[in-house]
Amino acid sequence: MKILPLSSLLASGLACLLALQPAAIEAQQAAAGGKASSVAVLDISNAGLDPRVDYLSGIIGGLISFDLGSRPGIALVDRRNMDAVLREKELSLSALGADASAAAAAGRLVGADWLLTGEYVFMGSDVLVTLSLTDAATAERVVFRDRGADENLVHRLAEQMVRRLTGESAAFVEKGRSRSLVSLRDETPGSIALFSPIIRAEVFLDGEFIGYTTGNPTLPLLIEGLSPGEHRVSVHLDRNFGVIDLPQVAFRDWEGRARVESGKRATLRDETRHFNETLYKLIQLGSDTLTSMDSEAKAGSSAPGLAFTKSLSFQDRSGANVEVRVEAKSRDTAEGIVLEMTVSCAPAGAAAKSSSLSIPMKKTEYMNREAEAEALIVKLDADLQRRSDSWVLKWRVERTDISQNMW
User: Fold this and answer.
1) pLDDT per residue over 143-169, tens digit each?
2) What is the Cα–Cα distance from 51 to 283, expressed in whole angstroms?
3) Do residues 338 and 330 touch, judged by C-beta distance below 8 A?
4) Distance CA 221, CA 191 (A)
5) Whether the model pTM is above 0.85
6) Phi-psi region of 151 (alpha: psi -120 to 50; beta: other; left: phi over 0)
7) Is the separation of the CB atoms in 212 and 204 below 8 Å?
8) Every domain of the chain and the residues it spans
9) The domain at 6-183 falls in which architecture?
10) Topology of the domain comprising 190-271
């Protein structure tokens, strides 16, 4: 049996690798339905030389390869074959990152249109990542750089590279679901403490039912064993409870979001309330009780303590600001007084409208009388009472564009 020298075997193996490599890429191109850009992804180096974050090399490279490999216009070179070829040619990865011509030659060697190299530096709380795409045909190098703390940093860079390679947009960033890059190595579970005053309301974590509220506002429901990242918690009791979105006054279940850190506990406070409780507070714009003693009477006014002017404001359901003004005064009559009040309503960009009420009362009438006036979307209620030695006025202003039980 004839034994071939080792150098001949390596040369033969290299020829086989180079022959198989284009065939694999052509198969990916055919599956993609057209000409695909072949990309060889090399290791991402730790330029900061901090051994604590050496693990980021694999994570960043893996995310980049996953994103690029999911695009039909991009074909990835088989990494195992590529490593073998580079070792055979004794090509240094650090040299490829620094020398565009060497990177282009390596790309041609492994049958790739583009060679992707990169490095990262840990900045204490986030990571600076620099990625380079080198055109194997021209040695032209395109650099992409970004800085961040979560994996969306890598996804953003992948989106830019897809646009450069294919001319098409890609969406790899997942808002609200990204994990911290620097915590991916050690994902010790975290937890959420949910404080709620509601009794036995259903609790959902990221859309899945997990239990019931305790009903004790000082005793939280503990949601444990959570992976680091942002989580969504919602509470449902029945159609009469939840939160109200303003200014439109829309009704829904309460929902909160918490960013859980590895090994730590986040806290949420359930804002679920009975809808009527919240609506009552929204409806009431202002109120007061005024007393004018007979001993305070002066020339021209038997009840000077009832006179006032009050300015109020609120946002209507469209979000426009509404100015409200309330005025009151009394005038003497032969037998007592007449209370006169005016309410005016002025929505933003519209003419103000006013409405008045009048309540006559004798000094000898120990009773109370009520009246109301309405202007656009506000209503004034007044209650005048005569006591043995004084006049008492109770008034309140409400908005009428919302009402109790309206949900």
Assistant:
1) 999 998 888 999 999 999 999 999 999
2) 61
3) yes
4) 10
5) no
6) alpha
7) no
8) 6-183, 190-271, 279-399
9) 3-Layer(aba) Sandwich (3.40)
10) Immunoglobulin-like (2.60.40)
